From TrEMBL:
Main location (coarse class): membrane
UniProt protein name: NfeD family protein
Localisation: Membrane
Transmembrane stretches, start-end: 44-63
Organism: Actinoplanes flavus
InterPro entries xref list: Membrane_assoc_protease, NA-bd_OB-fold, NfeD-like_C
Membrane topology: Multi-pass membrane protein
Keywords: Membrane, Transmembrane, Transmembrane helix
Entry annotated with the keyword Metal-binding: no
Length: 149
């Protein structure tokens, strides 16, 4: 019966992890599963709690830093960005007038919807711009007066 309670706790904790962005609660779910295994093998309640605490603590201490290191973006980790992360900071050529509510730029041979960062500036076709921010499938651009990044 104790094993079933530990499994229920593990499931509840795993579901709770889906509602957090911390990647922390899931390690306690792993500890609860380990405690369920100890209960199934006939360990006493104190031993089950110790297994839960040890497995949860080791998981948080050993696995979480590794997962968090791999979950960071390339810009945060100092690596060279690729894919969509590489768009921010890149240069573009205006192909259709860019203003607060419309425009197109060409970045590395691809056409992107573009908007002016401040909503006031207008960039005419042929102007060179720099991507400041990516919002969905739309880039926000500004004058390309920054040095190469």
């Amino acid at each position: 019966m104790e094993a079933v309670l530990w499994i229920v706790l593990a499931v509840v904790l795993a579901i709770a992890e889906a509602f957090t962005a911390t990647i922390l609660v899931i390690f306690f779910a792993a500890g609860a599963l380990a405690a369920a295994g100890a209960a199934a093998l006939g360990a006493g309640l104190v031993a089950q709690v110790i297994v839960f605490a040890v497995v949860s603590g080791l998981s948080v201490g050993a696995l979480r830093p590794i997962i968090m290191r791999h979950a960071r973006s390339a810009l945060e980790s100092g690596e060279r960005p690729f894919g969509i992360e590489a768009i921010e900071g890149s240069r573009g050529l205006v192909v259709e007038e860019v203003s607060a509510d419309h425009g197109m730029v060409k970045i590395d041979g691809e056409l992107w919807q573009a908007r002016s960062v401040d909503g006031q500036e207008v960039f005419l076709p042929g102007a060179h711009v720099r991507v400041v921010k990516l919002r969905g499938a739309t880039v926000q651009v500004w004058h390309d007066d920054l040095p190469d990044l």
